[in-house]
Amino acid sequence: MNPLRVVQIDAGREWRGGQNQVRLLTRELARRPGVDVRLVTSATGPLASRARAERLPLTAVPWTIGLDPRALWGLAREVRRTRPQVLHAHDSHALALALVARYLAPRPQPRVLAYRLVDFPVRPGSNWFRADHVAAVSDAVRAVLVARGLPPARTTTIPPGVDPEELRAAAEPRLGVRERLGLASGTPVAANVGALVGQKDQLTLIRAAHAARPARPDLHWVIAGEGARRGELEAERDRLALADRVHLLGHVERVPALIGESDVVVVSSVGEGLPNVVLEALALGTPVIGTCVGGMPEVLPAACLVPPRDPDALARAVTGALVTPSRVPLPERCTAAALARGFVALYEALA
């Protein structure tokens, strides 16, 4: 039997949860008999670096701007060489290049599959409508796609996945976040992990820290990530006199270690598909408090959810989680193995 040939495409110029999903999916597919997978990504990006370290099947191309013609040339050459049945695009720029590469490919041309990670509405007539099929990271994201006009039959929900064993190994040795901040052992820590952008709404997190201080003056809040809103967040922290309680850590290389050492992970987003940090926390047994947006209600019970942009509700939920931690098990459908199974079934249907 001929192998199922699939090319994964991701711009890979930064490292976020989406790039980790591409890494895990490529790794799982490479282990499966009957699947021939190749990853096409930026030669200088962190995704390529990690793929090389894990010896994943990689075609690294020049890709320094979104619609880089050099990346298109490299992708088109790979498609002509390997004749894949499916081109799997993981971001909007990858999707645009995949659609052109399909047009340039010899017949039979590959099918184009796109993976939608965010719950922002898509623009009618955009490239998302030109894909043969769109997989959504959550039912909430799929509902947005259908509401904007994508036929339900051309959409599927496939949740992201994590590798619990890999995460437990990555959580050791300890990060020592309390020691780095000069805190006593046992000091309660609430952690937020994510880019400092409007969607993640760390402003509400900082205001929740202010609201929680009378009840839990011992509680410290750490924010791991970088982004354009750092200055705004620092200004709000200082305005509320929280410099001794809210710590902006910047980029943290070993996020699983931070999650494992925290008493609770807090997600304050106003929009989400289904964030990796939630699944990683569940896999590591760390309680999670999140906003009831996007796909988070699909993995977290109502007791762990609060409305977005409500710092008082967020403060109450976080301080409550310190008293009565709610450890929610990771759903089996949110493992890396399940991610690969779901996509292989979809690839076979498309091919």
The fourth-level CATH homologous superfamily of the largest domain is Glycogen Phosphorylase B
Give the helix level as a range of percent.
25-40%
Number of domains: 2
Portion of residues in beta strands equals: 15-25%
Structural class: alpha/beta
Notable traits:
351 residues, alpha/beta, Rossmann fold, 2 domains, seven-stranded parallel beta sheet, six-stranded parallel beta sheet
What is this entry, summarized?
The protein is an alpha/beta fold and 351 residues long. The protein has helices spanning 17-31, 46-53, 69-82, 92-104, 139-147, 164-170, 177-180, 202-212, 230-239, 255-261, 276-284, 311-323, 336-350; strands spanning 4-10, 35-42, 58-61, 86-89, 111-116, 133-136, 155-157, 189-193, 220-224, 246-250, 264-267, 288-291, 305-306.
Descriptive overview:
With about 350 residues, this protein is an alpha/beta fold. It has 2 domains: about 170 residues, Rossmann fold (3-Layer(aba) Sandwich), CATH 3.40.50; about 170 residues, 3-Layer(aba) Sandwich (Rossmann fold). About 40% of the residues lie in helices and about 15% in strands. The chain starts with a strand and ends with a helix.
